[in-house]
Design a protein that fits this description.
Elements lengths: L2 E5 L3 H12 L5 E5 L3 H10 L7 E2 L8 H15 L3 E7 L3 H11 L6 E7 L13 H27 L11 H10 L12
Parallel strand pairs: 1-2, 1-4, 2-3, 4-5
Length: 187
């Protein structure tokens, strides 16, 4: 493996990616996005004891941008294998977007989903909250696809993706379930 790539979000994602790099799965780790100060805190909090190198990426605001900026790093360093770390429910969208950004390369992507919110193998056993998360991810995929198309035509990366577009914000409000954060629910 050449790189461990974490699409930042829940703390479990970052911890898993850090552990993989610390266990020498790959010599490089990118957390998208992460500031230098954040990475220094990680080294202290998670007790870095191995020699791996951080590759900085602190620009991404959306999942599409995670994929875009991480793919640029992969291309710049000519990496051929990457371990993609994100939540289990988020992995399909993250994987597809990264795969699309790496089209035309021989880079292999290995999914390493983090079971921060375990899903039963039988969808009929999923909780209402889990169903809402999966539904939101499917709906968000189309927003990511629109953001990718806009980028392909304009070559510009929008601040906050398309979330500030009033028309899309209206549809997001209509289509997406409002889900409380884990912290807000006392977990």
């Amino acid at each position: 493996m050449d790189l461990v790539a974490v699409f930042n979000g829940d703390k479990g994602r970052v911890e898993k990616g850090f552990t993989l790099a610390n266990d020498q799965v790959a010599p490089f780790l990118v957390i998208s996005p992460a500031s230098t100060n954040y990475l220094e805190r990680l080294d202290q909090e998670l007790r870095r004891d191995r020699q791996f190198q951080y590759l900085p990426e602190n620009q991404a605001d959306t999942t599409f941008q995670n994929a875009l900026f991480v793919s640029r790093i992969i291309r710049r360093y000519h990496f051929h294998s990457v371990v993609l770390v994100t939540d289990n429910y988020h992995m399909p969208r993250a994987y597809i977007l990264l795969r699309l950004q790496l089209a035309g390369t021989d880079t292999k992507i290995f999914a390493c989903p983090v079971e921060t919110r375990p899903l039963a193998t039988n969808p009929f056993m999923w909780s209402t909250l889990q169903k809402k998360r999966i539904y939101n991810e499917m709906a968000e995929f189309w927003g990511s696809a629109l953001e990718m198309l806009k980028y392909r035509f304009s070559g510009e990366v929008s601040e906050n993706g398309l979330k500030k577009n009033p028309v899309l914000s209206f549809f997001r409000g209509l289509l997406l379930f409002k889900i409380e954060s884990e912290r807000a629910r006392g977990r």
